[in-house]
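[step 3/7] inverse_fold.run input=structure_tokens len=132
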């Protein structure tokens, strides 16, 4: 079974108590042991939560969730691929970064973000939102 790179929006759906949080929680629980988060996603979650005065939620996330998830990052020499993918597929930095990690590590991206439809041929992508 393939390792799974969980996009930022999956975690934020849960942490910010949004509409699809239960679906996201169930997915994470059912795939325990296969889960990865990018360093960029981790930092983005921190920025968003701290900006919104949710330090307690960030602390709980780092204490309860992070121990069961591996952190993935790009090596220095792979960063030029981020700009190439962004330009070729009209993606923003975070989606390009996730795509590069996924391609380099053989991960499948798990997301709610439809922008990843543009890179389905480059790497595995699975949308949790049933309405593709």
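[step 3/7] decode complete -> sequence:
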């Amino acid at each position: 079974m393939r390792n799974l790179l969980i996009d930022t929006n999956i975690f934020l759906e849960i942490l910010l108590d949004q509409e699809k949080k239960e679906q996201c929680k169930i997915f994470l629980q059912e795939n325990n042991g296969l889960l990865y988060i990018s360093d960029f996603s981790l930092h983005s979650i921190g920025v968003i939560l701290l900006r919104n005065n949710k330090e307690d939620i960030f602390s709980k996330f780092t204490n309860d969730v992070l121990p069961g998830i591996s952190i993935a990052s790009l090596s220095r020499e792979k960063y030029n691929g981020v700009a190439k993918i962004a330009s070729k597929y009209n993606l923003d930095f975070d989606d390009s970064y996730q795509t590069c990690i996924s391609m380099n590590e053989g991960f499948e991206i798990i997301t709610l973000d439809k922008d990843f439809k543009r890179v389905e041929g480059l790497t595995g992508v699975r949308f949790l939102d049933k309405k593709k």
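[step 4/7] annotate
Residues 13 and 20 are 6 Å apart (CA to CA).
Residues 4-127 form a domain with the Rossmann fold fold (CATH 3.40.50.1010).
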